[in-house]
Target: Na(+)/H(+) antiporter NhaA
Amino acid sequence: MLPKTEVDPRMTDRTPHADRPRPNRRFFSRTSWPEARFLADVLRTETVGGGLLLLGAMIALTWANSPWESSYAALGAWVPWSGGAALHLDLDLAAWAADGLLAIFFFVVGLELKREFVAGELRDPRRAALPVVAAVGGMAVPALIYLAVNLGGDGLRGWAIPTATDIAFALAVLAVIGSHLPQGLRAFLLTLAVVDDLLAITVIAIFYTDDFSPLPLLASLVPIAVFGLLVQRRKTWWWALIPLAATAWTLMHASGVHATVAGVLLGFTVPVLRGKAGDSHGLAEHLEHRWRPISAGIAVPVFAFFAAGVSLRGADLGAIVTDPIVIGVAAGLVFGKVVGIFGSTYLLARFTRAQLDEDITWTDLLGVALLAGIGFTVSLLIGELAFGPGTDADANVKAAVLAGSVISALLATVVLVRRNAAYRRIAQAEQVDADRDGVPDVYQRGDG
Model:
């Protein structure tokens, strides 16, 4: 028998109706803590985040090329807050996704990149120099290819279009196909893509921005500095940090500089090393753990949904493929990125003391160089700034960026899938050691 102080669950039907706990019948009630934690852990998995991004991109491409493409365009062009013109915040949904939500992604990237430079694979200057130089080479060669194709024509103003790598799409593809690739390869691509984005934003500010305002840019450094002061002292008050980050983003956007730079700079201010002996993780790792589900589950997929909706309905494909602008952009992304990144890295490693991570092969680097040819967001932005939104040249740029990015992604997939399979076999061989003599049994068999 059960003690009198306990209730036999079999007797619940005899409990008076008024005393029974009422079931929760709300449709959108808060989930249990284990469910919420499980969902957050799933979203922290890069494969899931990459899959959500690619899913958002496929939905956008399908919708934008369907008979209902006007509704997709209308959704992206809707301005939810029309009264923000004074602060340059009268943005449509597509701009909010690219400038606002993507700043969360860049904040997480800034945290991860600083952790790599301070305590990770890139803390050795000889290794850190390679992706930085590769980013420069990966911008210079595509620009030269574009200029060579369009020399003497009307498309010279678009020389910077193929120079940009879309970090969100590139990392997503790598996450989906690279389950066993070396971690150093991701750090290399991450550093290369961030430097590439920062240089591309600098190019936009110098060559393509007519309304650059230095005063808001300088003012944005104040909330960034206060944010950095608080996190350096381990003061993680959300009611202070979030308004400071929003103020920095607003001022950065008002200056004419791409507002996602604020996310990177805020991430760089967060300390990596543990503050006290009892801390199990540094603050950068803690904040990255907190914000990654929001970045991977919301910010990046929504951005992909609004960025990837390139419509090709009714386009004259014959005229598009022969347009020098299209040839220059596509060739710059597919060939220029590979030659620039792989060539500059090889030359630097050959003639200096800089070196690749010991776990990375040159074939791995070739796959990453191909992956860097994915150039969605910033490339499309430069195309609009160079030729004007809605023009024939801008439409051709979108087609060229889409084609070049898809070809680069497919070629990178061919290379990296084979490398991933090789690393998977190595990992499986290392795990098989039945006699526990420290030597995998696969190396003790008579066949090799």
In short: The longest helix spans residues 392-431. The radius of gyration is 25 Å.
